[in-house]
Amino acid sequence: MTILIPFMNNLRFGMPMLGCLKYMTSEEVEWLIMDNGSTDKIEDYVRNYIKPKRLNFIRYETNQGLMNNIQTAYEMCQTDLMMFLHNDCFIYEKNWDVRVRGYFDEIPNLGMVGFFAAQGCLPDGGRLQDVERSGQMSGLSNMLEADIHGIKLDRPWRSCAIYDSFSMIFNMEMLRKKNGFDTQYKFHHYFDRDCSLESLRRGYKNIVVDVPNHHIGGITHETPQYQAWLKDLTGSKFEDGKLHNANKELFLKKWESVLPVYIEDDFSFRTGILPLPTLLTYKGDAITKMQ
Question: How many Cα atoms are found within 13 Å in the side-chain-facing hemisphere of 152?
């Protein structure tokens, strides 16, 4: 497995995150760290204190953006699995990667694994976890604060439709079906939902696993350096909202023929009416349309 971790400063969060990752991850995993113009001494800290057994460190003088980072990682990856991990995500299970590897070996045509996901994707791209057909809006995870964000996983894994991007592991065979990621998406908004559905469209399965974790969230986006970069690129630090909406429009246009969609625990697509006020009908032929 190769783990991509992009950075743009925030070494104060990166130090404990990288240390936690080192002690929770087996030594044979390759670390691919992309430094997007940081003024913090990211490389010095990684090489002098974390010292991964297998390290590929790439330094850019300016921020390349998340989509460029992840597509470049795909093009460089020499292992059969690739993980995208935010630099503010803490994993609390020893040798979690060994367990995840086991799922790819055991479950035929497994395309993706993640730590926070939902079995349903609504027409607007929102997450849906239907608890006993109640139509509850939420996600599945074993995050420390899982009950705040949705529902705590009560088993080692469950099927899912879409992920949150902070921790996603990809089957490289699945990614090569369409040459990686859809780079029409700008920055990061909605690309996680897109690649999740692409895995299904390419004939693979997705699961969410109960690896305990914590995701701080938003620490790079909120820094003055990132805001200055965004302003230089778009003309305004407030353009991120417009980019979010543009990506959402792209996502909805691309997937309108199969949304809404819901994956049952046996990986089948739901049919019939879900008991929501809007009475959404889930398309039983979605997998056919996606393929």
Answer: 11
Alpha helices in the chain, H assignment, sequence order: 11-24, 42-45, 66-76, 96-106, 146-149, 172-176, 191-201, 224-234, 239-255, 286-290
| Buried b or exposed e, range 99-116, using 16+ CB within 10 angstroms | bbbebbeebeebbbbbbb
pLDDT of residue 188: 73
For the full predicted model, state whether its pTM sits above 0.85.
Answer: yes
205 touches 267 (CB < 8 A) = yes
* Alpha-carbon span 219 to 213, nearest angstrom: 17
Domains of the chain with CATH codes: 2-104+168-204+213-290 (3.90.550)
CA 203 to chain centre: 19
What are the E-state strand segments in 17-80? Answer: 30-36, 54-60
Instruction: Return the sign of the alpha-carbon dihedral for residues 162, 167, 168, 169.
Output: negative
249, HSE (Cβ side, Cα atoms, 13 Å): 7
- Token pair 């074993």 in the structure block, residue: 142
CA distances from 252 to 40, 245, 267 (A): 38, 10, 23
Which burial class, exposed, middle or buried, applies to 168 when counting CB atoms under 10 A from its CB (0-12, 13-18, 19+)?
buried
Strand partners, 168: 84, 114
Q: pLDDT, tens digit, for every residue of 155-172?
A: 999 999 999 989 999 999
Q: Are the CB atoms for 28 and 54 separated by under 8 Å?
A: yes
Task: Give the three-class secondary structure for 91.
Answer: strand
